[in-house]
Write a structure and sequence with these properties.
Elements: H1 2-7, H2 17-26, E1 35-40, E2 43-48, H3 49-52, H4 59-65, E3 80-82, H5 89-98, H6 110-119, H7 123-130, H8 179-185, E4 210-223, E5 231-232, E6 238-243, H9 244-251, E7 255-256, E8 268-274, H10 279-288, E9 292-306, E10 312-326
Parallel strand pairs: 1-3
Antiparallel strand pairs: 1-2, 4-5, 4-6, 4-10, 6-8, 7-8, 9-10
């Protein structure tokens, strides 16, 4: 009797045999682990299950509460797979953590992120992304800037060169334009005013000049006696350095921006690389966009490695850069 009294108060013990069996059967193991791994468009994210189910009735909430693990798609390593934009998903995950929307300055992917929020059925995030942006500290908005800025740089969206001031300064005649308007409407070639300027256009309306540098690292093996044919290894990655707007104009969808996704169009970057591994393909794209090669440099190192036949081979590793210009 004393034993029965002592076990009656335990959560899973005490009582008769029927009651004990009922409690054991109801304690089922959770369907999903507390830590889940997600593969979103090739990008791997590791987070808690409570994070992905933090918004009721959302797509992720239904996946991880209303479905069985075996019903969800997985990749080759067992991660739950979602065929969506893996780079924008980080902002979705940040929102799910604390239900706050925090985006970097000059974020160019707002409309695409709103589309991702609609797919994941996050109505509050969709509403916040669709709301007008509040002006913050930093450069003035594009509509308040002239066609020509400091040091001759161009903004993302500039006024048309034929833009006229609504009011003229006192003392100026009706037919004489102001000096500022003359500067904004005059092209370097002396021609007529051009259309709206984009980040890849110059003042005369043509494609904007600039430089793009592409580089690659390669290695090859050659015998010590230099008699055997060199064994060249495949180029692992072709890097792209230059202005963001020029790189996107030339390479388009073949440009991988994963290492620097939020770079404004007028900034420079050295972290882009191409989705293909053929130098000739990169040369063709640059040539089609009006670029021509102006410089090339290469550096390399050499090391000896022992092979299976007790001989030593030379392993050369080189990094080569090609500089292209469009005038």
């Amino acid at each position: 009797m004393a034993l029965a009294d002592s076990t009656r108060g335990l959560p899973n013990g005490g009582g008769g045999g029927g009651g004990s069996g009922s409690s054991s059967s109801s304690a089922e193991p959770p369907l999903f682990p507390d830590i889940v791994e997600l593969n979103v468009g090739g990008q791997v994210y590791v987070t808690r299950r409570c994070t992905v189910v933090s918004v009721p009735d959302s797509l992720l909430w239904r996946m991880f509460t209303q479905q069985q693990p075996q019903e969800l798609a997985r990749d080759s390593k067992g991660r739950f797979f979602l065929d969506r934009d893996g780079f924008l998903f980080r902002y979705i995950l940040d929102y799910l953590r604390d239900l706050q929307l925090v985006l970097p300055d000059y974020f160019p992917e707002r409309s695409r992120l709103q589309r991702e929020a609609e797919y994941f059925e996050l109505p509050e995030l969709v509403r916040r992304l669709g709301a007008p942006q509040q002006p913050g500290p930093g450069p003035p908005p594009p509509h308040s800037r002239r066609g020509v800025q400091k040091e001759g740089s161009l903004g993302d969206e500039l006024l048309p060169l034929s833009y006229a001031e609504p009011e003229q300064q006192e003392g100026s005649s009706a037919g004489a334009p102001s000096p500022t308007l003359e500067l904004a409407s005059r092209s370097p070639s002396g021609g007529a005013a051009g259309p709206l300027l984009t980040p890849s256009q110059s003042l005369d309306g043509s494609r904007r000049s600039g430089y793009i540098t592409i580089g690659y690292r390669g290695s090859y093996t050659i015998g010590r006696d230099a008699q055997a044919d060199a064994k060249f290894r495949r180029v692992a990655r072709i890097t792209v350095c230059g202005k963001t707007s020029l790189a996107k104009e030339v390479f388009g969808d073949t440009l991988n921006e994963s290492r620097d996704p939020d770079r404004p169009p007028e900034r420079y970057t050295s972290r882009y690389y191409l989705k293909f591994n053929f130098l000739e393909q990169a040369f063709d794209k640059l040539s089609e966009s009006g670029f021509h090669m102006v410089a090339c440099s290469s550096t390399g190192t050499c090391a000896f490695a022992s092979s299976t036949d007790q001989s030593e081979d030379k392993i050369w590793t080189s990094y080569t850069e090609y500089v292209f210009c469009r005038e």
